[in-house]
């Protein structure tokens, strides 16, 4: 809702992308069901829906550009070895740079990692969360660009796709706030523009678990969209709207009254 309302209020385009690189984890029929639900709630993409799986050759070309410029290296470490030697980091074990100087004799390359510049600091201003700063060497270390199973990492794919689609504003959940410095660094290394970012608060249960990842949370009901739309609107800190007759009427009002400045950095009420 936040991304759609923000795009509509600014007269922009709202795009849907299915980030489906990991086909083994994709639930059959889930993507189609998501699109049907979005339409029922008045949200349709202003361009053909993009899927990432057919674009793997483009991600491979971006990876080659990074390698040619000396920004990446092959890593032969297994998960067990990394866990044993890992340093503490922002999101768990941080890779200690074992293969930075080259693979050990007899080692085969598994993953491809980004070679972080020394003392790499990324700072940016988030439209909701305010000024942000991260020292990537200490926070995450040399992160993966291509996994051991051959799949390109989300960080690389999303950066390339944002630029390819001409994305100027990213509005997404606050669980991706910590990933943003990595994406900004990749944008700089690839000579790509950096969009404006806004990270909305997560909808969580009473124990702080993200509702979108909770097996106990019920899905929204596409047969009765208005009630959920109003509740989500209030969750995002917006002023109450008059009761419209239908979904189209809701979005006509939302376009006029959306105020990003009212979105709280942290959830103020249960969704």
Characterize this entry briefly.
With 271 residues, the protein is α/β, with parallel strands linked by helices. Helices cover 32% and strands 16% of the residues.
If you had to describe this structure to a student in words, what would you say it looks like?
The structure is a single chain. With 271 residues, this protein is α/β, with parallel strands linked by helices. It has two domains: 52-200, Rossmann fold, CATH 3.40.50.620; 211-262, no CATH class. Helices cover 32% and strands 16% of the residues. The chain contains nine helices and eleven strands. The protein has helices at residues 2-9, 30-40, 56-68, 79-85, 136-139, 154-164, 180-189, 225-235, 247-257; strands spanning 17-18, 50-51, 72-75, 87-89, 92-94, 111-114, 121-126, 130-135, 144-146, 169-173, 196-200. It has a three-stranded antiparallel beta sheet. Strands 1-2 form a two-stranded parallel ribbon. The longest helix has 13 residues, at 56-68. The chain is elongated and about 70 Å long. The mean pLDDT is 92.
Keywords:
alpha/beta, elongated, 3-stranded antiparallel β-sheet, Rossmann fold, 271 residues, 16% strand, two-stranded parallel sheet
Largest sheet: 3 strands, antiparallel
Number of E strands = 11
Mean pLDDT: 92
Looking at CATH, which topology of the largest domain would you report? Rossmann fold
Give the topology string: H per helix, E per strand: HEHEHEHEEEEEHEHEHEHH
Low-confidence stretches: none
Give the proportion of residues in helices: 25-40%
CATH C-level category of the largest domain: Alpha Beta
Distance between the termini: 13 Å
Overall radius of gyration: 20 Å
Which architecture of the largest domain would the CATH scheme give at its second level? 3-Layer(aba) Sandwich
User: How much beta, percentage-wise?
Assistant: 15-25%
Number of helices: 9
